[in-house]
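Batch job 17 of 40 flagged for manual review because the log was empty.
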Amino acid sequence: MESRFKFSAPVQVRYGETDMQGHVFFGYYFTYFDVGLVEYLRATG
């Protein structure tokens, strides 16, 4: 069964959030989750 829930919030990864190989440091994922939550709440009122 396909979920009807669809939401996205584009996040631009900044240079300081990556290591020398260009991978995002795991600690910043929580920041991205927070941005997504705030954008979702903003979109739904």
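Reviewer: the log was empty due to a logging misconfiguration, but the result itself is present. The helical segments are 29-44. Unflagging and moving on to job 18.
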